Amino acid sequence: MSKKIFSGVQPTGNLHLGNYLGAIKNFVELSSGKDNQCIFCVVDLHAITVKQNPKELKKNIRETAATFIASGIDPNQSIIFNQSMVSAHAEAAWILSCVSKIGWLNRMTQFKEKAGKDKEKASIGLYSYPVLMAADILLYDATHVPVGDDQKQHLELCRDIAQKFNNDYNVTDFLQVPEPLIHKKFSRIMSLKDGKKKMSKSDPSDLSRINLTDQKDEIVNKIKKAKTDNSLMPENSKNLNKRPEVENLLGIYSSLKNQNLEESINEFQRKNFSEFKEKLSDVLVEKIDPISKEIKKLLDDVKYLDKILLEGSNKANEIASKKIKEIRKLVGF
Ligand code: AMP
Ligand code: TRP
Questions:
Q1: Pick from 140, 220, 184: which is nearest to 26 by CA?
Q2: Ligand 1 center to residue 328 CA distance, Å?
Q3: For the chain, which terminus, N or C, has the lower number of CB atoms within 10 Å?
Q4: What is the pLDDT of residues 308-320, one digit of tens each?
């Protein structure tokens, strides 16, 4: 069956190994599927839900687009664009926010995490962020949405919003209810410094993550400094969840090698960490260093990147403007 794929990444800088293994690697695989129609969006409207420096934002929009291309997405086959260039996203988000319930949004754990203790001070945009995400997906009749595990709840909300809209306006199957595509394994990459914390661009310590712009020396150094424990490499997967940092590093290794955890465990059974870390650095450098080099090369050619984003936006706009027209009509405008 041919799939209509839509996904988004925020241009907030420091794209890292978690973004790559949790999402972008999957985008690349899906985009090479012959019958798949893929749309990858740089979600700049989402980025401004927390304060951004305008110059940095502009740079990060291009860097995110460059990361997509450097990772292997072909802009001639997939649509790559940035959200703010297609005004239907903001318009659909408003309309969908009028069928979404406050109670649904109150359950969103990402808002709770991002807003922190003082929720009164968080922006309204940060609160309604998942409705904009639903608009992104529903405008393109996406059938499948590849994301990391942390976005699962937002996708469930998107499904609820689609069904509620279809019900309220009496239009069976008008908004396509999308399926999440979340890897069962390795869909949550953890910090190199704390196996209980997600690898994140907002972690103040750069040693907690491998950035997709890191070069060989930085990667090797970060793996050398990655937290482990005093025992040897595990013999089997029993009780591995009690050693979250080790489990995470083994997960990263397995995901990069496209093998399952058991195979990786067997490969390093009872060995010293230094031996494992050396092999892990090797596969990371092999995968990430070429991406990092290609990102740098692409960023030197701003004109090319802007052309890709403009062409992508034109194509996206063609699809989204048709859908928003139908939505307007249904609503009674
Ligand atoms: P963001 O950069 O927050 O827009 O996230 C882009 C994509 O990367 C989303 O699909 C996330 O689910 C995924 N992602 C972000 N951090 C991680 C992580 N630590 N592990 C796995 N996937 C992640
Ligand atoms: N909220 C997603 C994240 O933080 C990014 C995103 C925005 C997205 N719109 C989307 C992902 C639509 C998938 C589909 O990772």
A1: 184
A2: 32
A3: N
A4: 999 999 999 999 9
